[in-house]
Amino acid sequence: MTNNPVTPELVQRIEQIVGEGYASTAPDDLEKYGLDEIEERYRGAPELVVKPRTTQEVAAIVTLANKHRIPVTPRGAGTGLSGGAVPVLKGIVLSLERMDQILELDLDNMMITVEPGVILADMMRAAEAKGLFYPIDVSTLDSCQVGGTIAENAGGARAVKYGLTGDWVYGMELVTPTGEIIELGGKRIKDVTGYNLIQLVVGSEGTLGVVTRITFRLTVKPRCSLDLLVPFDELDDAVSLILELLRREQSLVAMEFMDDLSVQATERYLNISLPHHDSRAHLLLQLDGMDEDGVWRAAERIYERLREGGAKEVYAADNRLTREKLWRARRNIAEALKAQNTYVSVEDIVVPRAKIPEMARNLLELSQRHGLVVPIYGHIGDGNLHPTPVSGDRDEGTWARDLDAFVGEMFHVVRALGGNLTAEHGVGLKRTKYLPLTLDAATLSLMAGLKRVWDPNEIMNPGKFPSAVEVAA
Ligand SMILES: Cc1cc2nc3c(=O)[nH]c(=O)nc-3n(C[C@H](O)[C@H](O)[C@H](O)COP(=O)(O)OP(=O)(O)OC[C@H]3O[C@@H](n4cnc5c(N)ncnc54)[C@H](O)[C@@H]3O)c2cc1C
User: Fold this and answer.
1) Would you call 316 helix, strand, or coil by DSSP?
2) Does 275 have pLDDT greater than 70?
3) Residue 125 near residue 102 (C-beta atoms within 8 A)
4) Own/partner pairs for 344-347, CB < 8 Å, 24+ apart?
5) Which domains, from first to last, does the chain contain?
6) Nearest CA to ligand 1 atom 44
7) Which of 62, 72, 280, 353 has the smallest set of CB atoms within 10 Å of its CB?
8) What is the pLDDT of residues 370-425, one digit of tens each?
9) Does the pLDDT value for residue 473 go beyond 60?
């Protein structure tokens, strides 16, 4: 693995490429760009932070780094929860924040082309201003960059109907780890000419190159949408209804879940109150469609079924204020838990959705056995849960030990239920050591082989999967 130091000469040469003020070795910058939203104990120590403005500048920096065998870690907004943007082996952090232009909105082809540093919500608003719709509403949409969403294949609450980021990426410009600028895909809806390399880069967490331009497909903006908050006493009742409704209704877009601990944490954090806040399970459902009457008729059918099936109440948020309050509550759970505890670990497991009740029972049993408080929330319609152990009054050492024991056992249960380690937050730094639990040795070796072909000198985001995975002989 490569980690030559950044020399003063190299800093000078890179400053000539990006211009004065955009290549920094200032301690404040090195500190700021050493961490994302993962816990502090994973902090990295970059030697140089660079902020290029163009693809050519990115290519020139990467070419130099490759020649001198210096690690490069691409960085979006640093909202990642798995340490993907942490520069484990020091070197250069390459921040895409200045590449923030919306380049083209092509109405005829229903595609939008953007630079990677565009903030996700800005791209969504640009599409909506023309009556089009980009549906992937990652919770951090007001701060994360579209490049980061591609590298993580991020999901949003609406994945139930609209899938993940990767489903909307059609074209991409990439600077490879050896400094070439390549074009993948384009505005073609169908194209099977060769391997689908775009989808290899999607979700590769900055290990296969720097994404410098993206073309996303857009769809028609739904004319009507409606949100329902539904408290239940029993998670099992909620899940069996969810499974049934998914078989019967097409208008369901989002199916979010919050347990009582999560609801109470977000209430305290936002100083709001939600109805039945001590219920074991709260569902937040969203429906959408082109026909208002049709959406309301679906809502009535869903209402009836939910009440028969054990819902304590069904609250419809049909105005902007109530709807914003509900989604703010859901989106702020992770922040609330962080603010209220010294240490937290946001996990991101996924199981087949019918296995959620069994997973939840196992999580309760595990948390009691390990003496940990573990609020659970997530995207129940996708089988994606975020159990979030919190430290209580543990010191850092005890917390790290107890957490590792809990997480290791949790992943064994996940595997037994046909699930996997991460649904949308990525492997990053946190989960590399657990990969051999769910990916077999042949698969891991293929991934490592791909990485060697793309990045022979291992300069692109090194110290992460797949090269850092230790497979037992
Ligand atoms: C409170 C909270 C809620 C969240 N909710 C969600 C959610 O609902 N759904 C979800 O999927 N995630 C969620 N996340 C995680 C995170 O916001 C997403 O993964 C987001 O897509 C990261 O974007 P970013 O710009 O911050 O990327 P960063 O964190 O900066 O980087 C993430 C990864 O992408 C790589 N990268 C960034 N830009 C590029 C580029 N241009 N080229 C190549 N590689 C690049 C980095 O090297 C790193 O590996 C949440 C995080 C927080 C803190």
Assistant:
1) strand
2) yes
3) no
4) 344/39, 344/388, 344/389, 344/390, 344/391, 345/39, 345/388, 345/389, 345/403, 345/407, 345/430, 346/81, 346/386, 346/388, 346/425, 347/385, 347/386, 347/387, 347/388, 347/389, 347/407, 347/410
5) 8-95 (3.30.43.10), 102-220 (3.30.465.10), 224-329 (3.30.70.2190), 341-433 (3.30.70.2740)
6) 206
7) 280
8) 999 999 999 999 999 999 999 988 999 999 999 999 999 999 999 999 999 999 99
9) no
Q: Is the CB of 227 under 6 A from ligand 1?
A: no
| Pocket residue to mutate for ligand 1, from 37, 99, 144, most atoms within 8 A of Cβ | 144
The band of 468, judged by pLDDT with boundaries at 50, 70 and 90, is: confident
**Can you give the length of the chain in residues?**
473
Q: 47 CB under 6 A from ligand 1? A: no
Q: pLDDT at residue 328 above 80?
A: yes
C-beta of 156 in contact with ligand 1 (< 6 A): yes
Q: Whose CA is nearest to atom 45 of ligand 1?
A: 206
16 backbone dihedrals φ, ψ, rounded to 5°: -65, -30
335 Cβ inside 6 Å of ligand 1: yes
Q: What is the DSSP letter of 344?
A: B
116 pocket-lining for ligand 1 (C-beta < 6 Å): yes
**Where does the pLDDT of residue 180 fall: very low under 50, low under 70, confident under 90, or very high at 90 and above?**
very high
How far, in Å, is the centroid of ligand 1 from the Cα of 315?
32
* Span between the terminal Cα atoms of the chain, in Å: 19
- The CB of 93 under 6 Å from ligand 1? The reply is no
pLDDT of residue 471: 61
Q: Does the Cβ of 462 fall within 6 Å of ligand 1?
A: no
Phi, psi of 178 (to 5 degrees): -100, 5
Using the atom order of ligand 1, give the atom closest to the CA of residue 332: 1
Nearest CA to 358 out of 278, 239, 241, 439 is that of 239
Q: Which atom of ligand 1 is nearest to the CA of 206?
A: 44
Cβ of 144 closer than 6 Å to ligand 1, yes or no, is yes
Q: Which residue do the tokens 């030990």 mark? A: 401
- And the tokens for 127? 């599409």
Whether the pTM exceeds 0.85: the reply is: yes
